[in-house]
Amino acid sequence: MDPSLNRRDFLKLMAMLPLLPSINHPLWQLNAARDEMVSKDPSAPNILILVFDALSATNMSLYGYPRATTPNLDRFSQKATVFHRHYAGGTFTTPGTASLLTGAYPWSHRAFHLYGTVDKKFEQQNVFQGLPADTYYRTTYTHNDLAAALLYQFRDDLDLFKKIYELSLYYEIPLADTLFEQDHNAAFLGERVIVRGQRGQSHQMPSSLLAGMLHKIWRTASKGSIQHQYRDLFPRGVPSTNAAPLFFLLEDAIDWVQAETNRKTPYLGYFHFFPPHEPYNTRHEFVNIFKDGWSPVSKPAHRFSDGIDQNTLDKQRRHYDEFIAYADAEFGRLYSYMEQENLLENTYIIVTSDHGEMFERGILEHITPTLYEPLVHIPLLISRPGQHQRIDVQDPTSCVDLLPTLYHITGQPEPAASDGQILPTFGERDPSPERSIFTMDAKSNPKMGPLVEGSVALIKGRYKLIHYLGSNDAALGYEFYDLEHD
Question: Distances in Å between the alpha carbon of 174 and those of 189, 399, 404?
Fold first, then answer.
């Protein structure tokens, strides 16, 4: 082995071996050709969308949280428009991301299952398709394979789709990314079942015995090597995902995004980072920075409680807050770079999330039918090109509003099938503060069938109504809250 090749580079090269047979795939050639595109309108503004997965507004100091979790986003907010009551389309990645990208609620786009995809008619209504292709270089990356399943549906509208494994230390299922471009989602799930089995709602489908055993040996060895290499930098473990799994450094993705922001042509960049999603493996300088003994107000257990005790919830909340601080620091590094390179004068920077996280009522994280504020109240900050003063918007807004807003600021007609409205301060006339905002959980329903089970929340002004569908308990059917006092 070349002595100049370190372990991390070696692992990356090994992960790319399956790519070799398909290097001449037409899609790769198309992306290479588009990479040389010269814009017809070099004065058009860049659009940079940054999604931090599972970032709840209720845990951000920017929105009044008592721990200083987001000092860099606080700094960014001084030259941005801050939306204080912004809502996700659902409680996990698939519905939340699909609503953001299509401007439609889950009952319209139908992507409300784990690894779900949107109804085909929405493949032609997304943030990438709506911008003029002869002007914008459209590029994307995500650590999250659920988000990647959606982005593959929109790949014809992308000039560069950076693959998950290209910015990872270890990614265990690369074949779907390299050999099955046109059937990625089916190939990905097929590989996953063969080597790991597939978890259903009430059962576990076993993996192939031989493939599963060999895969487990390989995965354990690879994971152990990576954890050992980075144990000083990440004492709780290298940042990872549980679904694939994937090991990565957020720093690598931020470095790559920095390079993308220096393109000569106007770009639309959608970058969906996994932190601060669990597991909450923060960098060494953030470990225990919030070991302060603070605990939020205790709330009664819910019917859908997982039975997790408050001490465990408080510990997980603290680790989550420390992981937020890590993600915030990396955002701060990107923002400082763009300041230094004078890239803010012609760039919209949009910071948001796909859903939140919960540490109360006996419920941990976000796979739950409940629709409480920590799960669906997400951040939204937008810095206009050259903006130098903070603007605060207190009216309720939704992730489905982002698509019509982007169409508007780039001079495109608003899509007819959008459930959203142009965000306040961005259009000629602001939406009514009493408009209805929705969020929902519908993962127990068939994709194209009627929605008969789940939960839906209506936010209107200061009030919130939650309806649990399919419940036989009349007392559980509805919950009503005054968000200013409850």
Answer: 12, 31, 34
